Amino acid sequence: MLNRILIDPQAFAAQAETINGTVSLQHLDKRIWSPDIADLSSELHYTLRGGTDRWQRPFLDLAVSGSLKLHCQRCMQPSDFPLDEQVRIVLFANEEKLDEAMLADEELEGMLLCPELDALSLVEDQILMALPISPKHDDCGNRKLDAVNQDKPNPFSVLAGLKKG
Ligand SMILES: [Zn+2]
Q: Could you list which residues have their CB under 5 Å from ion ligand 1?
């Protein structure tokens, strides 16, 4: 069953509210269930904090952390992927203000105000952005696989080339 946490973003920011919790991937929307994920029971911790910045704009600060298990694209065994993401989402009353602010600041994460927002959909967006395109172990711990790996030149053939030169 999906967990949903509905907030009124404007009130949440104005009252500087905070919510936090732990959610398992299997209780999030299926759009984040990448085939790379080896274990859907992995849990992530999130904190959502509202506030108002120095330009009097309401914002939501989101932090998502934990560890996922992803299939290594080299050896297909699970690989630990630590996740520690923080983002500030600034809320705007209309599209013109949002566009103007995005043009002025390329780094800005902006969003239009809406009467109701699912906090966990923000968590899902954050996970989607953090997932690597091609997860791999730093070292698969399997020499046989390294030998057939064509990505890197074989050190012995490099040495042989040096000797010839
Ligand atoms: Zn591997």
A: 72, 74-75, 137, 140
* Separation between Cα atoms, residue 99 and residue 114, nearest integer Å: 16
Q: Phi and psi for 45 in degrees, rounded to 5? A: -100, 140
CA separation for the pair 65, 39 (Å, rounded):
16
- pLDDT band of residue 92 (cuts 50, 70, 90) is very high
- Ligand 1: distance of its center to the CA of 151 in Å? 14
- Predicted confidence (pLDDT) at residue 141 exceeds the cutoff of 90: no
Joined tokens for residue 149: 């790996």
Structure letter (DSSP) for residue 3: -
Share of the chain above pLDDT 70, in %: 85
